[in-house]
């Protein structure tokens, strides 16, 4: 058993070397061989999941993360990679749950020091994606014609992407060219949808306007809109009550891990005014966010 563990560790280090060189397929192969030697090591699955993220093999990433979490429940990296893969396959609800778990584990960790800001950004991205899905459905319900037109655009996009995949499979174009064309199709589709929604919003502003929350109004601990923001010495703002509760458990900034005391906090009056104005102007829907 010890021999297998040693061999697995050597293969992992070899995989890490490939990963640092952006040789992700080779890294994945090494991690897979390492797992064959030691299938009980959760870190090998997260390493392979990270390589598979780079290769955009989303379902394989999900499988690896789930296996890693089975072996190690409090597994921040596995939840972090899992959320990214779930976002990639358009499952924002699941992605948000995974990202929140990663964030919670990161904030509580005594060993991780540089991941909180990155994971916080992912949580917000997942929450916005979840809201976007709800908004899309709300707007579609408000305007049947808009929904039908968006579906037509979606069908057209899928057809164009299918043609690109078909040409790639037939070696009529290379991987780089295919990726560029896919991005072009996505950008064109997104622009058309945006223009379409704008036209409908102008015609029915009360019901069709897209509802958004600016990032700067959102607390980086609870990911809700702030009511009484305070600012730290490094310029980061948080909701006063949630930050004080955090500081009672750990006297450090949740994102930077710098030493932080309650007496270091100052009211952010300008941000408080902006939050109040936004809440008052959008009181009809904002608590659903």
Automatic annotation (TrEMBL):
Gene3D superfamilies: Tetratricopeptide repeat domain, Zinc/RING finger domain, C3HC4 (zinc finger)
Location of the U-box domain: 212-285
This protein's UniProt keywords: Isomerase, Repeat, Rotamase, Transferase, Ubl conjugation pathway
Domain of life: Eukaryota
InterPro entries named in the record: TPR-like_helical_dom_sf, TPR_rpt, Ubox_domain, Znf_RING/FYVE/PHD
GO biological process: cellular response to misfolded protein; positive regulation of proteolysis; proteasome-mediated ubiquitin-dependent protein catabolic process; protein polyubiquitination; protein quality control for misfolded or incompletely synthesized proteins
Regions crossing the membrane: none
Pfam families: U-box (PF04564)
Any GO CC annotation of this UniProt entry: cytoplasm
Record bears the keyword Iron: no
Name recorded for this polypeptide: U-box-domain-containing protein
